[in-house]
Amino acid sequence: MLDTQSIQAIQCIVGEKNLLYDPARIKAYNCDAYTxxxxxPTAVVFPETTEQVSLLxxxxxxxxxxxxxxxxxxxxxxxxxPTHHEVIINxxxxxxxxSIDYENHRAVVQPGFVNLHLTQKIASHGFxxxxxxxSQSVCTIGGNVAENSGGSHCLKYGVTTNHVVAVKxxxxxxxxxxxxxxxxxxxxxxxxxxxxxxEGTLGIVTEITVxxxxxxxxxxxxxxxxxxxxxxxxxxxxxxxxxxxPAACEMMDKLTLYAVDKSHxxxxxxxxxxAVLLIExxxxxxxxxxxxxxxMNVCTAHHVRTVKLAANDAERDLWWKSRKMAFPAIGRISNxxxxxxxxxxxxxxxxxxxxxxxxxxxxxxRVANVFHAGDGNLHPLICYxxxxxxxxxxxxxxxxxxxxxxxDVGGSITGEHGVGIEKIQQMAYMYNELDLNAQSRLxxxxxxxxxxxxxxxxxxPQSCGDRPTRHxxxxxxxxx
Amino acid sequence: MLDTQSIQAIQCIVGEKNLLYDPARIKAYNCDAYTxxxxxPTAVVFPETTEQVSLLxxxxxxxxxxxxxxxxxxxxxxxxxPTHHEVIINxxxxxxxxSIDYENHRAVVQPGFVNLHLTQKIASHGFxxxxxxxSQSVCTIGGNVAENSGGSHCLKYGVTTNHVVAVKxxxxxxxxxxxxxxxxxxxxxxxxxxxxxxEGTLGIVTEITVxxxxxxxxxxxxxxxxxxxxxxxxxxxxxxxxxxxPAACEMMDKLTLYAVDKSHxxxxxxxxxxAVLLIExxxxxxxxxxxxxxxMNVCTAHHVRTVKLAANDAERDLWWKSRKMAFPAIGRISNxxxxxxxxxxxxxxxxxxxxxxxxxxxxxxRVANVFHAGDGNLHPLICYxxxxxxxxxxxxxxxxxxxxxxxDVGGSITGEHGVGIEKIQQMAYMYNELDLNAQSRLxxxxxxxxxxxxxxxxxxPQSCGDRPTRHxxxxxxxxx
Lengths: 480, 480
Hints:
In chain A, strands 15-12-14-13-18-20-16 form a seven-stranded antiparallel β-sheet, with helices on both faces. Chain A has helices spanning 4-14, 23-26, 50-62, 115-122, 141-147, 154-157, 191-195, 229-241, 254-260, 285-301, 313-324, 326-330, 349-363, 389-408, 424-430, 433-446; strands at residues 19-20, 43-45, 67-70, 87-90, 97-101, 106-109, 127-128, 164-170, 176-180, 204-211, 213-214, 218-226, 248-253, 275-283, 304-309, 336-339, 342-343, 367-372, 377-378, 380-384. With 480 residues, the first copy, chain A, is α+β, with helices and mostly antiparallel strands. Helix content of chain A is 34%, strand content 20%. Chain A is built from 16 helices and 20 strands.
């Protein structure tokens, strides 16, 4: 609970209407889309300018008050969950587009600007913004910067860090800095690259300059149905081996198909199909038809049952809706589900999917697989019933085993959802103490008092191997 | 000069044959390819393993001896010049390829491995390594990592940082760490991204895991001759506007054409041509012909005099040799030249080229322009005669004005050559004190004693605006 002096100071900065501290009204901010852990914030404040953010943060820093930034709250790893009674700095009112430069392919937006709105705003000029997380219709570009969000089309076009060229950022001490270059690569050390994906722990981004891309002249979307998961996996590797970089290459397995066909976006997949690939190729009108034909040939060489081109935009939209709404669709076949997010070498796809199937049997929990196959970025969805605490615990344990499997085959514990609080234990599985110390030291330069989104990403020493102690502080070793 | 104890200690680590300290034999290491400043090293040591590098660095750190890493010495900004009597750690003996994984598109090399040798080694399997600096036949991949090197084909494929997925690195304190992920993006803070492009100031990279790419099925190369520089510039913007991302898009101006046609690689450009574009498109056989035809249409719409496709590999090779050897070719028309390396928004190409022409007049020095036009990465070559010290000073001043012009139009002072010692003054033109402090603080975590390639990249406080004091130390402010 804030004291009266702090309430007055904050109101003085942002105005009375922009501070919430009534416990009933701030309860909605006790987690983001990672709902397995919840905790109450102290207050929620809605700044409207960079200067207000800076003044707020200066006040918090002078008074030892922990804080964290929040966008739309769609994060999947708990990055915006106030585990340390933080004041939440909600950026939804900073939702303007500041400038668009079509000639040089740049746009400047505030952090609360919704991802999809950017593409909608510039579409009439033939442009779009490439990173497209499934939540793009509601998630904010500020949140995308924090999590270095990916999306279906990141196989060809890269993730958020490849599209952000500069930011204005309020450091945890309250100073305002500009990082990155509008044109050209980093000069000196790449501090922008460190801030992108830092999950709101190194400062609060208040202006973002992104690349906007010319819409491809032509897009062809194919749907390929396979009798065996292995054939679908081999097709993905073979496409890349043939030098084809699809704009997107998504896989869904049998359980996912069953769920999505129960949703509003019913495609009508045959019930005995084991895996579907949704493949998109794009480029100039001239060449795309031939590339699509090559994709079909590769599918045929890998025993596809059927493969077809979307007949029109309506069919293409339906296929994509079916894919993008796959997570919520799982809600139709299971009370609850945990979304995992691991990365593996493409060559390990078949092995890892078989092992997940075996783990699913062993744990007695269904697992649906839907993922960015081209990138080897898996999203196993573990079905469970939260009303049974033992089943929740089993689901969490299965999720951890899947992540450790990803690390064991040479992969990583997160493709695009971040570490947050969800995967903090796996950081110690993936990294040794030295690696983690290096990251802690970096964090300490930005945030010497440990007040900016504390307890996220890096395990505290006592938490390595155990359940992390939420109130520990990040350890600062004396040197690298 | 090293004392006897240090000589024995170093010999103990690397063997007698791997240490040079005779002044006559180490003189060759007094600069890299930025020859405007020279300084003698204390010794040159040739480690053969990561462990040797680590032991050396530990010894240097314990004894307060400054050191710096060196690859092939082709750097253009003085990053390997021993301005602080450093011991040079020469990595040429660490020149092995450690593993190749064709299935997952990865190769692991030592830092002394030559860039072009990687493509040659994997070519028979249909693969290549994308970053292609003009010096690729001699420069090392370790040096490319230090400088985040670009190249002609980086417009479509990205620079070194986009192709390095992981490194083994000896920190300035001697500890060995692994940074990055073989698969998937950075987990936690992107420390790999900070090390790539850090110009040998944050440690010594001893193993590098890079992406290798499948060779495009088909490549078409076009040569377009223009009567006006403006038309060539507009063509570049128009290509990108049409959604065409050429694999390469290089421009050479009249003076450059004159020089290259005097070289061994004579194309026979008409003497009244003002600008040439060398444009390459690649991809699947199926579509490339059509894309090349579109490129021709865009050139025609912008008043090209002639545009033609390379008739065969021999013609293509000649065109590329003529471009890649453009820097040395300037040596045929001028005793000496300074290569600059600025980045500008593509939309400013015409304005900046006109301003450079006016500055050239004003300073009474010829400037040849050859550059990666698609990226807006300029390489003005300032012709001068070093036998006349006043002319050298004038050339340096002209170079600085060109860099400041790049910053003024919204660009940056380096595209791919790094800051080194050459552009250390312009860092203070581009960044304010706060920005520079943030970079200093980052450096200090890696190198608390300031012994690893000191005096590079960051100006010392007293040097901002003045000529940098070579023996100053990097200032460490108490907080961000």
